[in-house]
Amino acid sequence: MAPEIKSVAIIGAGAAGAVTAAAFKAENYYDRVKVFERRESAGGSWIYDADPRPHPPLQPGKLAEDVDPPLKIPDLDLRVPKAVPPNQQERYSQTPVYNNLTTNVPHIAMSFSDRTFAYGPFPPHYIPRQYIEDYFSHHETDRFLSLNTTVEDVSKIPPTEKGGQERWKLTLRKYDPLRHIDLWWEESFDAVIIATGHYSVPYIPYVKGLEEYVQKYPGRVIHSKPYRSPHIYTSKRVLVIGNQASGHDISNELVTTARLPVNQSRRSPGLWDGDFPPAGIEWKPVVEEYIASTGRILFSDGTYLDDIDTVIYCTGYQVSFPFWNAAHNGRELWDPKDKKLIKGYWHTFFQDFKNLAIIGLPRTLTFRSFEYQAIALSRLWSGRNKVDLPRLEQQEKWERDRLESKKREGKRFHDIPWDDGETFAWLEGLFEIAGLGTLKGDGMIPPVLGKEVVWAIEHLRKYPRPERGKDGTMAGDVEGADEDKDWVLVEKTKKDSLAFI
């Protein structure tokens, strides 16, 4: 029997939190919905921090649980707010948005179905940030927001009577900028939705000698998260590690200011790499060792670099849920080895916690996929869903089979590719769960994945891809492409149309 859910806590006021709040309000069923956001405004990872300093300490090879541990909760009665000195522990709340960042996904496919971006197809970073804020106001869910409020602990509350349902206790910390204090208190909810994103805790791999190198040369090695502009690297010798989206952008920006060539370390060719590096960039293989005594950086092919001024690691982020009280809740939430939710189903639900869910985790069609998740979840918890979740045995089988197949393919568990139809099947599954709203108009309706959206995903590219066709032309070198724009039109779908996300 499904639990009765009337109060819902949403953790995070980014895009996932915004559409989730809208879906739960529209359902016209829930008595209390609150959105807890640790930043000063809604916007999530699209909030721009002009000055990201101080840089968090680098911890090469360390897992998120070590880099971003839970905060110690004051030993006080928090049933009413208590004031304590402000927290000094790094919470990784600043964003990785750099000055010239634009979206990677065409605006028609990225925006929610009921409200589009101001313009596109690949607008600058402040457009999605404004859009998220406006989305809360448009749906009048800004009254659900509790800003500057960090969820520091989520613990289940046992049923008060036999056959009753578990609830959740949230321990909350709100920074008061006027008094420069932290206010701590507790609130309880029937259900919790995690919408925290996964671009907070930087990942830097272990490399021989890197830890000693970082200690000897403070500030020389950074993660791309605090990168903002190429201008502070004027005339400096720079090594960029990585060649995915941020590595590609940053390397090309640095060519305009840094001492040439800009060195870029690649494990393998990237999506936008041709047969030769762009002008001003020199490709290097993976770093094998850092030698702190001399400052030398050795590569796997035996070559080396001396006198490097800055090393920028564009190596991505780790999923982190420091608020999850594993000891109290009986298990961990995330498996860092297999990089997946534990006991998850359909990248959204949990097999053993019927009143816990997560939105926005998979690498797939952002932001639009969040909308399908949010509507399906709001309908399921209101009991108005068209299709039930499968039996527990089937959910467990889905998890086992997917883990096995993804390991065999060498792919990540929560990557949902577009071109083999998996994205469509996943969204259709959520569509089926949700069904329609009520005859009186309660509930959002999951959007149609229309021809215009599909066309944009499969044909619009922020960057041209360098693959050559039989006639020798590059992808993107097509008749009618606009040379005055910073995006291209491609003729046909490539193997992974969402690989740029």
From TrEMBL:
Q: Which UniProt keywords apply?
A: FAD, Flavoprotein, Monooxygenase, Oxidoreductase
Write out the GO MF terms: flavin adenine dinucleotide binding; N,N-dimethylaniline monooxygenase activity; NADP binding
Query: For this UniProt entry, which segments traverse the membrane?
Result: none
What InterPro entries does the annotation carry? FAD/NAD-bd_sf, Flavin_mOase-like, FMO-like
Q: Which superkingdom?
A: Eukaryota
Q: Which Pfam families match?
A: FMO-like, NAD_binding_8
The family note in this entry says: Belongs to the FMO family.
Full protein name: Thiol-specific monooxygenase
Protein species of origin: Rhypophila decipiens
